[in-house]
Amino acid sequence: MERTGQWVFSQEIPTDVIVEVGEANFNLHKFMLVAKSNYIRKLILDTKESDVNRINLSDIPGGPEMFEKAAKFCYGVNFEITVHNVAALRCAAEYLQMTDKYCDNNLASRTEDFLAQVALTSLSGALVVLKSCENLLPLAHDLNIIQRCVDIAGAKACVEANFPSRSPPNWWTEELTILDVAFFERIIVAMKARGAKALTIASAIITYTERSLRDLVRDHSGNNTRLMEPEDSDMRMHQRELLESIVTLLPAEKAAFPINFLCCLLRTAIFLRATSSCKNELEKRISAILEHVTVDDLLVLSFTYDGERLFDLESVRRIISGFMEKEKSVAVFKGGDFGDVCTTAMQRVAKTVDAYLGEIATFGDLSISKFNGIAILVHKGARKADDDLYRAVDIYLKAHPHLDEIEREKVCSVMDPLKLSHEARVHASQNKRLPVQIVLHALYFDQLKIRSGAADDTNNNMPEAMATRNQLQADVSLVKENEVLRTELLKMKMYIADIQKTTTSTQGTSASHKGSLKKTTFFSSVSKTLGKFNPFKHGSKDTSNIVDDAALDLTKPRRRRFSIS
């Protein structure tokens, strides 16, 4: 009564009907309502009651506010139609059947005139009207209000993208951020149909994403308290659906988006546990332009928002692997061998990956398999020198001091000691964290360079490196054989010394008549033992060069063993 008492012109005539709209009650006059609303007229006429004094219109579009304006129109009271309420008024007029069919110049035609002459003449007006339609479905769709707003907004957005009418030039992208993702998607589709460029579409999507997922895409500090929401909360589910919808809108051109934006989207998808198809699409797009990636971009993918722990590194591994497969396909298509091809893009990616490994190597929960799994994805030919990879390996060994020798050798297996620069080899030769084998390789390579008189060159080609490696392996094998022979000789000396000790102890306890026998037994045993090493056992028995101090009977030579005294 307080609301309607201000504009109901005839208070001396008592009201005869109460209209209920939600929790609001309107005391009105039947004859004023039925004059312009065919819906209320039918309710009164079709009722079986003799006197209708209460009507429920709780399901009217726009609720009590829109019914109040419609009632004012019935009473002839002026009110303002704006871009914010015109769609709701149009739907309310349709619901109440306030059309020109029942009364000339009725509310429906008034709102249609405002839409055509005011609201839909500008991009901002069309977007505001479209935003107001979110709570007016499906009636707003049936009245074609939504489609008209989408067409007008799409056309004017394309014009603004090509010929900006105000500053900054991309102001129109900010206007689109007020929309729900379903309406935003319809405008993007309309712009594509009108031939909008991929960069124009990308600009609108980037702005919309940064506004809609501000705490996930733009905030990298981890200090936002909203990140503490549980995974199954309504907000997280809404964000997940929003992200998946945005990914489906990405234009086909792979280079339309900056790679840092794609990395932020992928990190958000991992955090929100988006579908596999959503993450795979983002990974493919990043792989296609991986040569433009920076270490910071890869780190965005690798760490949680608080920066305290690593994400699952499988996405990074698949991205690098996809890039290498793409380069391999290009090389095969051009008729070359992938092993011989080393493009500038591959060299750039290799350098970035090595620097990235150096950044994540400090984390104790990074396993050897994950570290090596990323390092070996880069083709060896893409690294002209392994200095950056050696730095990452050294950082990993320093951050994991409890590794045994075998584990340290496994970590170092990803790099080639022969492809280190002179400064890196000098550092490696003094690095106590490295396995002995790696240190020996570095030292031996320097010795070979000095011996051959060749100047140190960090850009050694692969044939020279392979030849040096083969020579090194042959020399190492020879050293091992020498060690085995030295060990066998030492064992034989110890065996002979043991026999001599045994003979000496026996001589002290035996009688003199066994002296000659004991002496013969000693030389006989020694001869039998050393006879196995007779150099003439399988060859010539020419003894012309053997000189004996005792006189020999040349006519009847004695048969004797060739022994060494």
TrEMBL record:
UniProt-listed Gene3D superfamilies: Potassium Channel Kv1.1, Chain A (3.30.710.10)
Domain BTB residues, every copy: 15-83
Transmembrane segments annotated in the record for this chain: none
One Pfam family cited in the UniProt record for this chain: BTB
Keywords recorded for this protein, A-Z: Phosphoprotein, Ubl conjugation pathway
Entry superkingdom: Eukaryota
SUPFAM superfamilies to which the protein is assigned, alphabetical: POZ domain
Domain NPH3: 170-449
Pathway: Protein modification; protein ubiquitination
Keyword RNA-binding found: no
Family assignment from sequence similarity: Belongs to the NPH3 family.
PANTHER family: OS12G0117600 PROTEIN
Protein's recorded name: Root phototropism protein 2
Native source organism of the sequence: Solanum stoloniferum
